[in-house]
């Protein structure tokens, strides 16, 4: 196979090795003890939101579905596990036939979540379900962290477009997933070509300071750029003197100049000055793009400034202070024997130092008040109360091993905007606070 | 090709798309302006360390070499760029033949660095060198952030082994790179099977709470695990009651039990109690492994506790508060014409809001004091002073497009331990402070 897609000369030929070793040793021990086939329910949830955050955003669901489909143990992988002495032969034989044949339910991608929300539920035999823990958590923890930051930034930006530009600040493939998550959270475009290629997200980008510095004069650089990218391009105006560069930009491109980009300095002050200058030069339709170390607070602080678009990098891809979610994957119920019809029994680790879990296979619903605004996240076991039946959150994602919930990325993005709009207004305050909905257990 | 290694049904068939769009539009404009072939020098450096950190750790160098080798534009990629209208035909033709034919120098992997250290220098035509910006920064910024956290943890752990267990808290492929970086920074093993497969890092792992909960009793679970993994295994003892579990563990496995793992609670207190209990039960050689939300400070706080090994997850893979470095890739010099013999001219963006650069192609050396302890990071342009000639830091990595510096990962790990040992003692204080070496410019 071509392994260049990982930037690695050696292949990692499926998603099956994105797995902590203990999943496989548990499998081996369960096969030996005769309990591997006990019907089991694992749930993904978080005990808390990052400090001060009002809501979480489920992202990565679509990537989880891809990962589950591609979770296979081929000869190369089995050879590695054998050679390292990690597993015995019966376990390796079992893995050779592995594919997930169970059911996965989950909050659909883009939905919001709260502490205790069962954002994903994996049901199958213990053996088939335990193996998926690491890869599911990797995807959901990373992607949801970026989407949550993106959502806050998109609230702060209002109607102004947001460009994702963080590829250089995170792992090269995390960057692709981050661009995807940013889009789900409300961003509009990305600088990352791989994300454009893979997820069809619109890509943007024109030039950096290096391009101006390559040329003998700023005029040469601007002329070269306008010649090839057209007058609608975005010229970067802060390599030397901003005022001189703006003057030159309009002289070279004319008032049809698409935009100027400011990447340093006091953006509030500079944006006002540049707007005034552009207007005086007749470039009244030329937009102003700002891109310097922005986060949701910096974006909000520019709300009254004449800024037309924001480019966000570091703070987006690192989750704006919270680069991972604390989602866990816990066994919450399992059958009392390996008989497929044996009853499920709720199980949970005992609390010690706050790591408590609630046992039992759960449903979840978001209860609206009389105005249709969400007032509580309700999580329970057993029958769903009739008044909550129409407000349930979990949908089938995989049924009998078959993915049943593929959707375009825009569907997740639209769902997120709608879900956020259904929360109390205080959800979109940037200031620190408690989760905007209480979680009620039934 | 088999695309399952990305968990993606569609291929990203080389590293060439791990690139911000503006690199390609700059290329197109430079080709049009006739300046694409100007000999150019780009340098990777950081203006500051994360707040309070005493030193940085270069990691990812080996991955950069892989990425540069695999940076090719095949028909699929060119078709994407054409279809999206991102580039014109002459530029697409130019890219079809692209491979990097220039030179790369850098601090060898595992070396420490300081603000202003030119950790990598890429030399070639503007066209060939500008394209590598994003993928080089992605790798170095991510990997070095993890390695810096790992290094601090390894200082705190002293001689006790460190296990990397963070895969579930970061993107599934970032996790593989994180395990690699952790190893460079001083970790010993990883739970991540893909990292074991790809980088030959020793892997570890035995069981989680789910395994105990699957069984009807804790005794059944321990018995099953010991039956298949042997008495040398590590039993997880905090699912229900730790004291009862430790008693049961030694009863089931005998005093030959390899280790017990504690994953919750007050680790200091619990470790002391468990050690006393194990000793009273005659299991004097049974080790104690702790794994609950550790960072370098928590590890240090357990220095006097009877703990034999640490497993670290979240805080490692998220860089212990600093998930990315702030490395940038700047054009520092370029020829005055496209004549290959034209002289190089230093270039730099003017300072505005702290984003200043120092122009010129740089060398770097670490000056020792009379005792051989490093006392300054010296960075300069022009001739290297004779007294620093033997202390230079940059080594050739790629020469004329050919990778010349492949090495086993252990070499980078050993280099890091040695480089850290050559710093003043205060380098390894965990408390916040200034960079332990000043950077002097010549």
From TrEMBL, chains A, B:
Bias-annotated ranges (Low complexity): 349-362
UniProt pathway annotation: Cofactor biosynthesis; NAD(+) biosynthesis; nicotinate D-ribonucleotide from nicotinate: step 1/1
Ranges for domain Nicotinate phosphoribosyltransferase N-terminal: 17-141
InterPro entries xref list: Aldolase_TIM, NAPRTase_N, Nic_PRibTrfase-Fam, Nic_PRibTrfase_pncB, Nicotinate_pribotase-like_C
GO molecular-function terms, A-Z: glycosyltransferase activity; nicotinate phosphoribosyltransferase activity
Domain of life per record: Bacteria
EC number: 6.3.4.21
Region called Disordered, residue ranges: 342-369
Keyword Plastid among record annotations: no
Reactions performed catalytically: 5-phospho-alpha-D-ribose 1-diphosphate + nicotinate + ATP + H2O = nicotinate beta-D-ribonucleotide + ADP + phosphate + diphosphate
Transmembrane segments: none
Signal sequence interval, chain numbering: none
Keywords in alphabetical order: Glycosyltransferase, Ligase, Phosphoprotein, Pyridine nucleotide biosynthesis, Transferase
PTM remark: Transiently phosphorylated on a His residue during the reaction cycle. Phosphorylation strongly increases the affinity for substrates and increases the rate of nicotinate D-ribonucleotide production. Dephosphorylation regenerates the low-affinity form of the enzyme, leading to product release.
Keyword Ligase among UniProt keywords: yes
Family assignment from sequence similarity: Belongs to the NAPRTase family.
Biological function: Catalyzes the first step in the biosynthesis of NAD from nicotinic acid, the ATP-dependent synthesis of beta-nicotinate D-ribonucleotide from nicotinate and 5-phospho-D-ribose 1-phosphate.
NCBIfam families: NAPRTase_put, PRK09243.1-5, PRK12484.1
Record-linked PANTHER family: NICOTINATE PHOSPHORIBOSYLTRANSFERASE (PTHR11098), NICOTINATE PHOSPHORIBOSYLTRANSFERASE PNCB1 (PTHR11098:SF8)
Name of this chain's protein: Nicotinate phosphoribosyltransferase
Taxon lineage: Bacteria, Bacillati, Actinomycetota, Actinomycetes, Kitasatosporales
């Amino acid at each position: 196979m071509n392994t260049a897609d990982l930037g690695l000369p050696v292949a990692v030929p499926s998603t099956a090795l994105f797995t902590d070793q203990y999943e496989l040793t548990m499998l081996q021990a369960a096969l030996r003890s005769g309990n591997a086939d006990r019907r089991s329910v694992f749930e993904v949830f978080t005990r808390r939101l990052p400090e001060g955050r009002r809501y979480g955003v489920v992202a990565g669901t679509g990537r989880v579905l891809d990962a589950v489909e591609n979770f296979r143990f081929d000869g190369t992988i089995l050879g590695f596990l054998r050679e390292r002495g990690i597993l015995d032969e019966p376990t390796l034989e079992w893995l050779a036939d592995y594919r997930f044949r169970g059911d996965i339910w989950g909050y659909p991608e883009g939905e919001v979540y709260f502490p205790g929300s069962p954002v994903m539920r994996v049901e199958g035999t213990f053996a088939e379900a335990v193996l998926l823990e690491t890869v599911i958590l990797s995807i959901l923890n990373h992607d949801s962290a970026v989407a949550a930051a993106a959502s806050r930034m998109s609230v702060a930006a209002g109607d102004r477009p947001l460009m994702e530009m963080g590829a250089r600040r995170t792992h090269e493939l995390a960057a692709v997933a981050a661009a995807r998550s940013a889009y789900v959270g409300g961003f509009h475009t990305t600088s990352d070509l791989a994300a454009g290629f893979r997820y069809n997200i619109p890509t943007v980008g024109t030039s950096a300071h290096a391009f101006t510095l390559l040329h003998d004069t700023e005029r040469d650089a601007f002329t070269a750029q306008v010649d090839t990218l057209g007058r609608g391009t975005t010229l970067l105006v802060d390599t030397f003197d901003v005022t001189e560069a703006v003057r030159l930009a309009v002289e070279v491109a004319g008032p049809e100049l698409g935009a100027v980009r400011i990447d340093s300095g006091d953006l509030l002050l500079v944006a006002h000055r540049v707007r005034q200058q552009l207007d005086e030069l007749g470039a009244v339709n030329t937009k102003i793009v700002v891109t310097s170390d922005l986060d949701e607070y910096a974006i909000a602080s520019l709300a009254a400034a004449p800024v037309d678009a924001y480019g966000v990098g570091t703070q987006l891809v690192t989750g704006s202070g919270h680069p991972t979610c604390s989602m866990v994957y816990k066994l919450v119920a399992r059958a009392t024997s390996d008989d497929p019809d044996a009853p499920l029994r709720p199980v949970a680790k005992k609390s010690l130092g706050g790591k408590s879990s609630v046992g039992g296979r759960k449903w979840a619903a978001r209860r609206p008040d009389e105005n249709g605004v969400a007032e509580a996240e309700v999580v329970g076991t057993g029958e769903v109360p009739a008044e909550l039946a129409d407000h349930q959150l979990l949908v089938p994602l995989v049924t009998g091993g078959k993915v049943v919930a593929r959707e375009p990325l825009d569907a997740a993005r639209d769902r997120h905007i709608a879900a956020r709009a259904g929360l109390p207004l205080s959800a979109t305050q940037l200031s620190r606070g408690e989760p905007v909905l209480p979680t009620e257990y039934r």
